[in-house]
Design brief:
It is built from 17 helices and 2 strands. It is mainly α. The longest helix has 34 residues. The chain starts with 22 loop residues before the first helix and ends in a 27-residue tail after the last strand.
Length: 532
């Protein structure tokens, strides 16, 4: 059947109409720009942390909160952002996220002290919640299910490019001034806002269930904030700290209460029935373990290269490239493979490969030659690329169209929670039993003159942390294998047709895409079934 579309949608000078066969690539270009912004920003900031500590004359705890404040804000608000986008439109929320991120980056560069910097980082986190909650949903709306793995692989590949550029760019920017580590985000974020406003289209209808879960949202935000605040601060300030005890107590009381509230809410913040889908539940659990196992790795190696091995920021940034290079190579290949053969085994294999790389890192010492670090970082990067795009496409492809915003929010929520706990845990392990003078030297990058003997406690504790991260990655591989088996169906419902792949999982019928979720008007009917 021939369908004709206008090349340019009404009221827009750029892009194509929502139903055009090439619209998916235009949408992917916009979400990829968001991924590039987030990944590059992460790398530049991490490489600049030792310089920030020296320039702002701040403590190690405050330095860590420059990262954690951003992650906590993004974590506790991502479900709220996903819910709002399902109600009021994903394009509007995504473009708004870019604009707020630009403003926050500008303010962070002018911060006179670490307290003001943390406040601007919180605003950056709020903006990123709207970007993270909508990027995967926008791609899922635009692409047919049999190409979703390729699309997610492309997004992950762009993020890997950002991870390659970030540390190197961060080292160069720090050589000018730490302020430029934040200011460089401004033109990139503004470009993303303009590009999204011009070419994105709203392909999903607003959620039919209106309303906003104020009680559930408030309970969740306070409870989760208490959890991440308690764990992160406890590792550095001690577990008998009053704020730590109060935060953990709030989490113990409020998070279970939030689950009860969501079960009885007419318009819940998080539709818990999504987790009745075994595929969705396993994929989100794996995303949490992935964040827990890998997020602190770059943070740890920046201080290993700059601190224990005494490298300059630019050199340390270059030495981190193998991690991102592995993701860059594996992500698109994994996405294409998952579209054709399914994602369960591939995602589990990715976690297993990462576990091997993390375990091998425990052989690193102060004077270990760089080629060994590079090899293990490359292996972890390959595993990460094998896991990310198949896991995301599987999770997003199994939920109804009107729930994709909240589904993407749930994924980011769990992954970011794992990331926060990862940093908190690694710091708690690394800082235990290490003399304060040594810690200051390592985390400031001022280790010239320190003997290998003085650095031994830091290296030993780093090994302990890496063993735990490797075990976490192994657990993630087991969780991936808990996904339901699938059957290959042809377009007419028969088995075994390679030309029209679709995967049917043991999924509640109400959550399966296809007839229950008709395509958006003006969009080709190409989304029957889902390749997972």
């Amino acid at each position: 059947m021939m369908l004709t579309f206008t090349s340019i949608s009404p009221g827009s000078r750029f892009g194509v109409a929502a139903g055009h066969e090439h619209y998916k690539w235009w949408a992917l270009s916009c979400t990829s720009l968001g991924m590039l912004l987030a990944a590059t920003n992460s790398g530049t900031l991490i490489i600049a942390l030792p310089d920030l500590e020296r320039s702002l004359h701040t403590s190690l705890l405050a330095l860590v909160w420059v990262i954690l404040a951003y992650l906590i804000a993004a974590t506790v608000l991502v479900l709220t952002a996903g819910r709002l986008s399902d109600l009021f439109g994903r394009k509007r929320a995504y473009v708004g996220g870019f604009l707020v991120f630009a403003l926050a980056s500008l303010g962070a560069g002018f911060a006179p002290n670490v307290t003001v910097l943390i406040i601007w980082r919180i605003l950056q986190g709020i903006a990123s919640a709207f970007l993270f909650a909508n990027a995967a949903a926008l791609v899922t709306d635009a692409f047919p299910k049999e190409e979703l793995g390729l699309a997610m692989g492309a997004n992950t590949m762009v993020a890997a490019v950002g991870l390659v550029l970030g540390p190197v760019l961060g080292g160069a920017l720090v050589a000018i001034s730490w302020h430029w580590v934040f200011w460089f985000n401004v033109p990139l974020a503004l470009a993303g806002a303009v590009w999204g406003a011009l070419i994105l289209r709203e392909l999903s209808k607003p959620d039919a269930v209106r309303g906003y879960d104020v009680l559930g949202t408030s309970t969740f935000v306070i409870g989760l904030t208490g959890l991440v605040l308690g764990v992160s601060r406890g590792g550095l300030s001690g577990w008998n700290d009053t704020i730590v005890i109060a935060g953990l107590a709030a989490a113990v009381v409020l998070l279970p209460a939030w689950v009860l509230i969501e079960r009885h809410s007419r318009a819940p913040m998080l539709d818990l029935s999504l987790f009745a889908n075994r595929l969705f539940a396993a994929a989100t659990a794996a995303a949490f373990l992935n964040g827990l196992a890998r997020f602190a790795l770059m943070f740890l190696f920046v201080f290993y290269f700059q601190g224990a091995q005494g490298q300059t920021p630019i050199t340390a940034g270059i030495e981190l490239i193998p991690l991102a290079l592995g993701m860059l190579v594996a992500s698109p290949i994994a996405g294409i493979y998952a579209d054709r053969h399914g994602s369960r085994g591939l995602a589990a294999a990715g976690m297993l490969v990462s576990a091997i790389g993390l375990a091998a890192m425990t052989t690193l010492e102060v004077h270990t030659p760089y080629w060994q670090s590079a090899l293990w970082l490359l292996i972890v990067g390959l595993g990460s690329g094998m896991f990310n795009s198949p896991n995301t496409s599987a999770m997003m492809g199994t939920v109804p169209a009107e729930r994709r915003g909240i589904a993407a929010g749930a994924r980011t929520l769990l992954q970011n929670t794992g990331a926060v706990l990862s940093i908190a845990f690694v710091l708690a392990v690394v800082t235990s039993a290490v003399p304060k003078a040594t810690l200051f030297a390592v985390f400031s990058g001022l280790t010239k003159g320190l003997s290998a003997q003085k650095l031994d406690p830091f290296i030993a504790n780093m090994h302990v942390a890496l063993w735990v991260l490797a075990a976490t990655s192994l657990l993630g591989a087991a969780v991936c294998l808990m996904r339901p088996r699938h059957v290959v169906l042809s377009a007419d419902g028969g088995a075994g047709s390679a030309s029209s792949l679709a995967r049917v999982h043991s999924t509640p019928r109400s959550l399966r895409p296809g007839p229950a979720c008709p395509p958006h008007p003006g969009q080709p009917d190409r989304d029957r079934g889902v390749a997972l």
